[in-house]
Design goal:
Elements: H1 3-27, E1 37-43, H2 44-54, H3 70-73, E2 76-83, E3 90-92, E4 99-101, E5 106-112, E6 115-119, E7 124-126, E8 132-134, E9 139-140, E10 161-163, E11 168-171, E12 174-178, E13 181-184, E14 191-193, E15 197-199, H4 203-206, E16 207-209, E17 216-218, E18 220-222, H5 228-265
Antiparallel strand pairs: 1-2, 3-18, 4-17, 5-6, 5-9, 5-13, 6-15, 7-8, 10-11, 11-12, 13-16, 14-15
Helix pairs in contact: 1-5
Length: 269
């Protein structure tokens, strides 16, 4: 068995997964509120040992007989995916419903067909009923949505909309509602849903609602935190790594096999 071939194959698969993440980041470089994804590449042996340590059963196998061949154990693979919540720049638009959050760990809440989700997108609109929604039609929620039967923030017709830094919403100077703004206790618990929505397990226990403070900038659109130059470098690097792995695989399957067959077929008198 050519262990090197399997090791290179695993490394190529890991690079393909990394390239998928990189290309998705590049595709959303201009998506408002998008947070880039990243991957951590590790080896199987470390993962196996971590799982082995937490199993309730003792490992009675001899140390010399490993779970897999040591070379295969060292095969690189994606061991973790993560979201980068570094706060991006914001762009002044003058639109009263463009609302940029000041910190990278702050979130709005929206009501979607799949339940309440968190979001950092900042471009909102008024629907035909006068409710503030995302461009996908998800309702932006007020801070009392958990106690109220009416989740929407409804604006009076033709009123001048203003929103202060704490998230209080006014129409012609009269307060209408206050936006739900919260921090997440542990950002590692967040699961991305699509490009702009996030799900938090046991949301009531894992968020900290904000009260008074400087959280919102009205008239500013929050940009993506994707660095296009860095992602392009990663894309080129990943493509070259795949090409290199492909050449190594070809050498194993063609050159080494041919040489092995030639030598084994040679019969000396």
């Amino acid at each position: 068995m050519q262990n090197g071939y399997y090791q290179v194959t695993g490394a190529m698969v890991a690079q393909f997964n990394k390239l998928d993440v990189t290309t998705n980041n590049l595709a959303n470089v201009n998506t408002s509120g998008f947070r880039k994804d990243g991957v951590v590449i590790g080896d199987f042996e470390r993962l196996y040992q971590e799982k082995r340590d937490i199993l309730p059963l003792d490992n009675h196998t001899k140390e010399g007989s490993k779970f897999l061949n040591r070379t295969l154990n060292r095969t690189p693979r994606v061991v973790q995916k993560h979201i980068d919540f570094t706060a991006p720049n914001s762009k002044h638009t003058g639109n009263p419903l463009d609302l940029a959050l000041n910190d990278g760990d702050l979130f709005f809440a929206v009501d979607t067909p799949n339940g309440v989700k968190l979001t950092q997108q900042s471009a909102f609109i008024l629907n035909s009923d006068g409710n503030i929604t995302t461009k996908d039609g998800d309702l932006l929620l007020a801070d009392n949505f958990r106690e109220s039967t009416n989740k929407e923030i409804n604006m009076p017709k033709n009123g001048v909309i203003s929103i202060d830094q704490s998230g209080r919403v006014f129409s012609d100077g009269t307060e209408v509602a206050k936006l739900f703004i919260a921090r997440v206790k542990n950002l590692k618990d967040i699961e991305k849903v699509g490009d702009n929505l996030y799900n938090v397990p046991q949301i009531e226990d894992n968020i900290i609602p904000m009260d008074e403070g400087i959280y919102v900038k009205q008239g500013y659109k929050q940009m993506s935190n994707v660095n296009a130059v860095k992602e392009m470098v990663d894309l080129i690097e990943g493509s070259r790594m795949v090409e290199m792995y492909q050449k190594v695989m070809t050498s194993h399957m063609d050159d080494l096999n041919r040489e092995a067959i030639t030598k084994l077929a040679t019969v000396r008198a």
